[in-house]
């Protein structure tokens, strides 16, 4: 199991309805994207971190491990904005407002990533997928996604084992050996994926499979107080940003 | 390269979502038709999607000494056809955003357009062109994977250039800037992905010939086939 999904399965908010967590996490993400980056993004990031580490009780170390990946992309993505191409300054020069734009982009992407992480760290994908049918996604697509979700972890486990076996057989000692090993790994993943699907099909056929994958979902009512608090938090962030924008430089 | 969460301005994020929607809807219809006609194909399609996800987790050695990962769209499009890849690619990108914090939800539309729409169609088109012009299978596979990878990055460059035009030279200058940065790493990576795809396909031709025949990659495809039916 991947670390974020493992954390979601043992989250304090695991039993909350996904709609509540989507409203909060994705609402914060939308605020981060739509509000002015200064002072909106730092406010949204602070609120998201407070929720993540406070009520949602996401361990700080796990959060940092997951967050540093998008943070790395944010930093590398902001660097090109520091430079201008062509123009009076020569082929490549410092962009006049480059640091400001790069800083704003960094703030926006970092706070938006935290919002998605809030949703991901509290909501297992297996809780979301079956509910998508009610949101209008065709059932066959949801079924395919459910099968994908189940098989992905098995394949990743198998891939890790094959990789260890290849390394033990000196499959990573030279560049040529690395390429051979990678090709073997890709082909093995394909064969195992189809083999696993075939066996699943045989197993389901024995249980009277009629084309529908029925999944039991834990009954979790949508909490109106939670949604009201979410709405209040988001409205408060929007209002505070718009007020502070007038007074801050 | 996935565009990170929050990287695109809201209007751009929404516009790319609208641009990719028809392709995804077309793929969803093809997939739904296929699953209703053959319920057992749900499992094969799920396995195909899982394979795409796992393929993108492979670490490719890069010329700079670092590692990157293949997009997997070329091989996926050759094996499962572009309409199906639009759906499988969208689900894969959604899983990557939620399970790996790679990509994002507001940038999902832009990432789907580059990785699940343009990449597969460009790669599959090149592959078909090669096959119809009588080129050997592996030449078609190499060029298909190469073009799929490279077109994905070209579209990403355009998306970034439109979102962040250069202060001096506008969108064209920005396109040169982002394209230049990607070219340093992505042209060697596209070649690497092409080579890896050829190696994978050669192994598959030896170990899973039956599957490749059923998918229509080896030999003649079945005459009455819906789009993506082979998957």
TrEMBL record, chain A:
**Localisation per UniProt entry:** Cell membrane
The cross-references to InterPro entries, in alphabetical order and at most eight, read: ABC/ECF_trnsptr_transmembrane (IPR003339), Cobalt_transport_CbiQ (IPR052770), ECF_CbiQ (IPR012809)
Give membrane topology per the record: Multi-pass membrane protein
In Gene Ontology terms, what is a biological process of this protein? Answer: cobalt ion transport
Q: Which domain of life is it from?
A: Bacteria
Q: Which residues cross the membrane?
A: 62-85, 137-156, 177-194, 226-244
UniProt KW Ribosomal protein keyword? no
User: What's in the keyword line of the UniProt record?
Assistant: Cell membrane, Membrane, Transmembrane, Transmembrane helix
Q: Which GO terms describe its cellular component?
A: ATP-binding cassette (ABC) transporter complex
Primary location: membrane
This chain belongs to which protein, by name?
A: Cobalt ECF transporter T component CbiQ
From TrEMBL, chain B:
Claim: Oxidoreductase is one of the keywords in the record? no
Pfam families from the entry? Answer: CbiM
Say which family it is in: Belongs to the CbiM family.
Please list the GO biological process terms of this entry.
cobalamin biosynthetic process
Give a GO cellular-component term: ATP-binding cassette (ABC) transporter complex
Q: Which domain of life is it from?
A: Bacteria
| Native source organism of the sequence | Streptomyces filamentosus
Q: Where does it localize?
A: Cell inner membrane; Cell membrane
Q: In which pathway does it act?
A: Cofactor biosynthesis; adenosylcobalamin biosynthesis
Q: Sorted alphabetically, which HAMAP family does this protein's record hold? A: CbiM (MF_01462)
Q: Mind listing the UniProt keywords for this protein, alphabetically?
A: Cell membrane, Cobalamin biosynthesis, Cobalt, Cobalt transport, Ion transport, Membrane, Transmembrane, Transmembrane helix, Transport
What protein does this entry describe?
A: Cobalt transport protein CbiM
């Amino acid at each position: 199991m991947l670390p974020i999904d493992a954390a979601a399965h043992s989250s304090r908010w695991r039993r909350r309805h996904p709609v509540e967590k989507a409203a909060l996490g994705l609402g914060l993400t939308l605020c981060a994207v739509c509000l002015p980056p200064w002072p909106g993004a730092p406010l949204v990031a602070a609120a998201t971190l407070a929720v993540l580490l406070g009520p949602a009780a996401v361990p700080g170390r796990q959060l940092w491990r997951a967050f540093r990946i998008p943070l790395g992309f944010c930093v590398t993505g902001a660097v090109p904005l520091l430079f201008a191409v062509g123009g009076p300054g020569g082929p490549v020069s410092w962009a006049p407002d480059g640091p400001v734009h790069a800083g704003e982009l960094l703030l926006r992407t970092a706070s938006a990533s935290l919002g998605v992480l809030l949703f991901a760290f509290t909501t297992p994908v297996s809780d979301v997928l079956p509910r998508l049918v009610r949101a209008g996604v065709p059932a066959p697509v949801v079924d395919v996604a459910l099968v994908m979700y189940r098989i992905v972890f098995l394949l990743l486990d198998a891939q890790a084992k094959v990789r260890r076996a290849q390394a033990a057989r000196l499959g990573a000692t030279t560049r040529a050996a690395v390429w051979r090993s990678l090709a073997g790994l890709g082909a093995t993943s394909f064969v195992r994926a189809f083999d696993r699907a075939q066996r699943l099909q045989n197993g389901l056929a024995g249980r009277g499979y009629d084309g529908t994958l029925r999944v039991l979902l834990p009954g979790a009512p949508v909490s109106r107080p939670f949604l009201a608090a979410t709405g209040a938090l988001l409205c408060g962030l929007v209002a505070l940003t718009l007020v502070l924008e007038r007074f801050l430089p | 390269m996935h565009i990170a969460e929050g990287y695109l301005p809201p209007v751009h994020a929404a516009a790319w979502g609208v641009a990719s929607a028809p392709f995804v809807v077309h793929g969803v219809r093809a997939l739904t038709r296929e699953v209703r006609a053959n319920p057992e194909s749900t499992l094969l399609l799920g396995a195909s999607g899982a394979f795409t996800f796992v393929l993108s987790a492979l670490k490719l050695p890069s010329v700079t000494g670092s590692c990157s990962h293949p997009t997997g769209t070329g091989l996926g499009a050759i094996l499962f056809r572009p309409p199906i890849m639009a759906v499988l690619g969208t689900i894969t990108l959604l899983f990557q955003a939620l399970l790996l914090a790679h990509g994002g939800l507001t940038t999902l539309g832009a990432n789907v357009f580059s990785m699940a729409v343009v990449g597969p169609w460009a790669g599959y088109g090149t592959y078909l062109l090669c096959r119809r012009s009588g080129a050997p299978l592996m030449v078609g596979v190499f060029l298909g994977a190469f073009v799929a990878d490279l077109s994905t990055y070209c579209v990403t460059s355009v998306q970034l250039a439109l979102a962040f035009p250069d202060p001096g030279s506008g969108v064209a200058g920005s396109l040169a800037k982002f394209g230049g940065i990607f070219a340093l790493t992505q042209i060697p990576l596209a070649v690497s992905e092409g080579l890896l795809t050829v190696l994978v396909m050669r192994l598959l031709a030896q170990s899973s010939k039956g599957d490749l025949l059923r998918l229509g990659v080896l030999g003649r495809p079945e005459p009455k086939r819906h789009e993506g039916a082979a998957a």
